[in-house]
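Hello Y.,

Per our agreement to keep a running log of every chain we model this quarter, I'm adding this entry. I've kept the format consistent with earlier entries: sequence first, then predicted structure.
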Amino acid sequence: MRISVSRWLQAATGHATPSVRRFYAYSGLRWFQLTASLWLLYLVHLGWPLWQVGLAEVAFHLTSLATNLPTGAFADRYGRRTALRVGLAIAATAPVAMLTLAPLSFGWGLLAMAYHALAWSFIGGADQALLYDLAPSKQDFAHFYGRVLAITYASGALGAVAGGWLATHFGWTALYGADGVVQLGALLIVWRLPEPSRTRPDALSAEPQPDSTLGIAARIRMMAVALRQVPGLSGLVLFYGLVSVFITTNHLYGQTTLAAKGAPLLLVTIILAAANLAGALASLLVGRWAARPGFPAVRVLRTATLLLALLLAAVGALPLAGAASAFVVDGVADGTVDPVATATLSRLAPDAVRATVLSAPDTLFSLGMVALFPAAGWLMGARELGIPLTYAVMAGLVLIAGGVPLARWRRADTTPAAAPASSGPG
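Predicted structure for the entry above:
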């Protein structure tokens, strides 16, 4: 029995429009990042000591910290698709910059890392806001975004495996060159996406205002007003930004932690892939659930925070089998937090500053990574019990970082149907 490709795609993507399906394709290529898990090894290959590698990570996040809000406001001012085009153009050339600049000196390598961070700043917030604009039903945005996350988890796992194969068989030049080509493919897909019109009554204004009437600085100020005025928005931004710090730190140090507990490189790769698949499945299921009316967003995020804390403690304290199992299950917690937090932020955020609001957690995330990442690395190596102690501290901190902001969320334990002060996209 013959089934056409178009009919199979329609069955797989449900009631998504052609534009949303193109967004799925963009997400698959964007997150097929061949160098994402290997850049550290590349710098070590160049002879960088680990303290310089740590400073490179700090340089990345300092750049993100300085540029996340301005680039989010740029997306709201000049168009979310425009910001994506700029970010992907940088992402397509950043591998070449790393390949050519990092071997020259430590300073040039930091510049290459900062340039790469610009791509993340322009893309972060803009792509989520564009998907929200493209979604045919705003109530179903969580469903669509859950699918996007599932694609990114799966694509990231495949990209890591493909990157390792390329680096092993063809060397670093082929790896970084191929990474640039993949990001260029994502740019070509985005180039064909539409930019929905967003001229409508503004969330914080009684009169319709075209987006072109507000500049970048004005949008950042408007975001600050929204954080004060829209119930639940500031608490959710704090929650998402801070909890993401611990999720990412676990992913980065989890590789060395599993290796220290006796896992060979191949087993570490399998565990990472299994965690990604767990996150993909959770994103699909939770995204579908979150699209239903009456979804208990606060309760789900609280449960995910508690689960994350318990699993962090288990990764640090248990032997290899238990730590590996906890690391894989942690993917479920990660895949739960992202679709719920992003979908709720998108609904609460005023349309004129949606990308700016979605960039705010990224700003807090960068600030937290600058502080936590080197501190966790130091603590792990400072004592004989460094690994379990570090993870126990992170487990306690994630309960505070997740619990306190959610306690400030003075709303009913359901996801709102729409932003209280916004008419939403038309």
